[in-house]
């Protein structure tokens, strides 16, 4: 919004749907330009503009005509005129569009039962269609009978075509002009297009007039069918089209000429898309070229005509490609003699009527439209698929959600109109667009207001809109005075050569401050000497995120102080677990404990690396007061009366954890090597309390007899073990000696044997 640099409320609301204009007279700070009145709504409120002073007009929609879709059964007693049947709702509405703000409305479509149908049969009467003509002669009554199953209001017409009546499409010799066929064939003179029978409900008349038709002939294979289609589309009065379902059956066994082919016959003028029927004959085929496909699409769509191409198998591929270019058209395969034409028409009609496709007329410049469809069986479509629904049966209802958005205001601010309609149907929705390009307060403006420097502007929406040739916030200058050095002097601070502190422009002797790329950063002040982004920072944030930067000085929020608002006055972070600030050992500065005794540390001065624990610190005093002994026995009254002491019978009676005051449980030895137990706590008033068990636990003396008996028994057992070991070793030694003796004894026996024994 700020980047739009809006000079008026109207320019502001065109900048975007979220932009508002503050019309409060004293809203602007000194040095701020008029465009600073334009900002998003939240920013304006934060700057102090009351909601009632913010101009923020919104778009709207209003339905002017909203007839319900028709619920009517075939064969009902009431006979409605075609114009009384409604298939689309609403029919007319007004959209008030603000730039960038879409307006959405729903469009309902319902296929009415027993809806009237006009069918025009356009037939190629070149010689190759001779056998087809015989079958078509009885088409009127037969088709009437079939169509009665669909509608009780059916009309049929007939037309024929051959080719342009110039060379090289036909032979222009007198004989060939009278009878273009060869041999004994009796053919009618060639023609471009003839309206044989305008639309009628009399099937017999169709049979009678078609029965009188004769085949004609031409030279080339493609036919002049496009000339005939154009005349059928634009000659509504002669053909007799009503505002009902309009079907055009185009029957041929050949291809087609299109725009540009007329040059072969020396015809260069483009088709004018107008009706040229005289006595039911197209009279300008020799003067205008064939129409283009795009031209045909336009005229068929304008006149809500749905086309059915009944062509032979040979040309199916060509006409299927043509079908893809012509919306709401179908292709059917015609038998060689047109015997299946009735079933072809019925099938093609069912196919065409089961699909609805929305189209809109040309939109005004800067207006866009989008569609979303809600079709049968939960099928939804968006973008191009949002324009259509398929497989719709009679009585089915579908919904389209349509968004219309204006991206700019028209220069003349006039209202515009466009229409939406389903292809092939005559009904349409008319949409009138009204553009919200000005604010309400502008209509209340005061021209030549005294508030705008002696009437040099219109005072509107809290600001001056200057007359031509005048500038300045109050229109106080003419454009001739803008560059005057006398004016520049008013834009310099004392003892300074800088104009507007180099942060703005001097206009009419007043500084208009520059805008920063970041729209949240603003220069202000009479000489643009102030800003809201050059204050001290903490943790990378302006004013530590705890204040507002005004003219390069931080204005801190409550409970914060310091040049960068980085000093908190809140003492909660300094509160120790015992409820004391910094445990009573320091002061709370900027939310942090500053310990007065250097031996204490920690967030709340709770830690002391060189200090005795609570238990060791108070052991001697508790011992002297509770048991009248210990190192401080003599000085107990002087040094140990700083706490309240309570005696308890046993350890179970000592205070247990969970009480409000911080508590320490202690177990210490006295001078007699007895254990004594006590607790130490400090209440909320800072008073120490000691609870001590009145009877110390002293260890009993040793029992001598068991000790002596144990020692003697140990000695005896050790002696017995040593004797057993000695005895075992001696037995092993004796056995070894005995074995050695036995061995030597055996050796001696062998030495005493006599010599004779050898």
UniProtKB/TrEMBL annotation:
Bilayer-spanning residue ranges:
704-726
Q: Does the keyword Disulfide bond apply?
A: yes
One biological process term in Gene Ontology:
muscle organ development
Q: How does it sit in the membrane?
A: Single-pass type I membrane protein
Q: Which residues form the PSI domain?
A: 1-50
Residues of the Integrin beta subunit VWA domain: 8-439
Instruction: Show where the Integrin beta subunit tail domain sits.
Output: 615-703
InterPro entries linked to this entry: EGF_extracell, EGF_integrin_1, EGF_integrin_2, Integrin_beta_N, Integrin_bsu, Integrin_bsu_cyt_dom, Integrin_bsu_tail, Integrin_bsu_tail_dom_sf
Asked if the Swiss-Prot or TrEMBL record annotates the protein with the keyword Transmembrane helix, the reply is yes
A Gene Ontology cellular component where this protein is annotated is: ruffle membrane
- Which key words are in the record? Calcium, Cell adhesion, Cell junction, Cell membrane, Cell projection, Disulfide bond, EGF-like domain, Glycoprotein, Integrin, Magnesium, Membrane, Metal-binding, Myogenesis, Phosphoprotein, Receptor, Repeat, Signal, Transmembrane, Transmembrane helix
The Integrin beta subunit cytoplasmic domain, residue ranges = 727-758
Q: Which PROSITE patterns does the entry link to?
A: I_EGF_1, I_EGF_2
Gene Ontology MF: a single term: laminin binding
Q: List the cysteine pairs that form cystine.
A: 9-19, 12-49, 22-38, 181-187, 235-275, 409-666, 437-441, 452-464, 461-500, 466-475, 477-491, 506-511, 508-543, 513-528, 530-535, 549-554, 551-582, 556-565, 567-574, 588-593, 590-636, 595-605, 608-611, 615-624, 621-698, 640-674
Q: Where in the cell is it found?
A: Cell membrane; Cell projection, Invadopodium membrane; Cell projection, Lamellipodium; Cell projection, Ruffle membrane
Determine the domain of life of the protein's source. Eukaryota
Family per UniProt?
Answer: Belongs to the integrin beta chain family.
UniProt name for this protein? Integrin beta
Q: Which organism is it from?
A: Calypte anna
């Amino acid at each position: 919004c700020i980047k739009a640099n809006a000079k008026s409320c109207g320019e502001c609301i065109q900048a975007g749907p979220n932009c508002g204009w503050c019309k409060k007279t004293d809203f602007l700070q000194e040095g701020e330009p008029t465009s600073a009145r334009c900002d998003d709504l939240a920013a304006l409120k934060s700057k102090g503009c009351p909601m009632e002073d913010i101009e923020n007009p919104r778009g709207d929609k209003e339905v002017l005509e909203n007839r319900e879709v028709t619920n009517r059964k075939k064969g009902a007693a009431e006979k409605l005129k075609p114009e009384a049947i409604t298939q689309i709702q609403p029919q007319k509405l007004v959209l008030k569009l603000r730039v960038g703000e879409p307006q959405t409305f729903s469009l309902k479509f319902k296929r009415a039962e027993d809806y009237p149908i006009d069918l025009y049969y356009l037939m190629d009467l070149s010689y190759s269609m001779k056998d087809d003509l015989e079958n078509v002669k009885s088409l009127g009554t037969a088709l009437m009978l079939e169509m009665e199953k669909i509608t009780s209001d059916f009309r049929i017409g007939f037309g024929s075509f051959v080719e342009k009546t110039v060379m090289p499409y036909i032979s222009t010799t007198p004989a060939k002009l009278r009878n273009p066929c060869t041999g004994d064939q009796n053919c009618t003179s060639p023609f471009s297009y003839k309206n044989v029978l305008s639309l009628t409900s009399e099937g017999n008349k169709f049979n009678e007039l078609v029965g009188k038709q004769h085949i004609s002939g031409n030279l080339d294979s493609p036919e002049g069918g496009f000339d005939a289609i154009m005349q059928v589309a634009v000659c509504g009065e002669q053909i007799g089209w009503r505002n009902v379902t309009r079907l055009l059956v185009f029957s041929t066994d050949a291809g087609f000429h299109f725009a540009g082919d007329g040059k072969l016959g020396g015809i260069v003028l483009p088709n004018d898309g107008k009706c040229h029927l005289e006595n039911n004959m197209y009279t300008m085929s020799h003067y205008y070229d064939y129409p283009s496909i795009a031209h045909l699409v336009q005229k068929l769509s304008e006149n809500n005509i749905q086309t059915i191409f009944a062509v032979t198998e040979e040309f199916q591929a060509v006409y299927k490609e043509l079908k893809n270019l012509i919306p709401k058209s179908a292709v059917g395969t015609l038998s060689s003699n047109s015997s299946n034409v009735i079933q072809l028409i019925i099938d093609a009609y069912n196919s065409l009527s089961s699909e609805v496709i929305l189209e809109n007329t040309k939109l005004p410049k800067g207006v866009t439209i989008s569609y979303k469809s809600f079709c049968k069986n939960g099928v939804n479509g968006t973008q191009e698929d949002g324009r259509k629904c398929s497989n719709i049966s009679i009585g089915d209802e579908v919904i389209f959600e349509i968004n219309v958005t204006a991206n700019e205001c028209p220069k003349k601010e006039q209202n515009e109109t466009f229409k939406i309609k389903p292809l092939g149907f005559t009904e349409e929705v008319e949409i009138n667009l009204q553009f919200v390009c000005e604010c309400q307060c502008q209509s209340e403006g005061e021209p030549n207001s005294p508030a705008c420097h002696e009437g040099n502007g219109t005072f509107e929406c809290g600001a001056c809109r200057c007359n031509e040739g005048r500038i300045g916030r109050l229109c106080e200058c003419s454009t001739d005075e803008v560059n005057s050095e006398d004016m520049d002097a008013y834009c310099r601070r004392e003892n300074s050569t800088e104009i507007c502190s180099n942060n703005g422009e001097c206009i009419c002797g007043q500084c208009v401050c520059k805008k920063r790329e970041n729209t949240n950063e603003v220069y202000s002040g009479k000489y643009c000497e102030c800003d809201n982004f050059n204050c001290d920072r903490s943790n990378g944030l302006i004013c530590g995120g705890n204040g507002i930067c005004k003219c390069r000085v931080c204005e801190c929020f409550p409970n914060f102080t310091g040049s960068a608002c980085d000093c908190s006055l809140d003492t909660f972070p300094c509160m120790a677990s015992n409820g004391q600030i910094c445990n009573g050992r320091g002061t709370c500065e900027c939310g942090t404990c500053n310990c007065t005794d250097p031996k204490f540390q920690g967030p709340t001065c709770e830690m002391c690396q060189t200090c005795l624990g609570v238990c060791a610190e108070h052991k001697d005093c508790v011992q002297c007061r509770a048991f009248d002994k210990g190192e401080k026995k003599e000085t107990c009254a002087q040094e140990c009366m700083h706490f309240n002491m309570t005696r308890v019978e046993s350890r179970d009676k000592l205070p247990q954890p969970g009480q409000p005051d911080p508590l320490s449980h202690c177990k210490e030895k006295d001078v007699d090597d007895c254990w004594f137990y006590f607790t130490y706590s400090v209440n909320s008033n800072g008073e120490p309390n000691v609870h001590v068990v009145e009877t110390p636990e002293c260890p009993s003396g040793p029992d001598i007899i068991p000790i002596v008996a144990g020692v003697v028994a140990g000695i005896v057992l050790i002696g017995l073990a040593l004797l057993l070991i000695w005895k075992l070793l001696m037995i092993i030694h004796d056995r070894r000696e005995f074995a050695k003796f036995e061995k030597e004894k055996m050796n001696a026996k062998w030495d005493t044997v006599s010599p004779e024994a050898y």
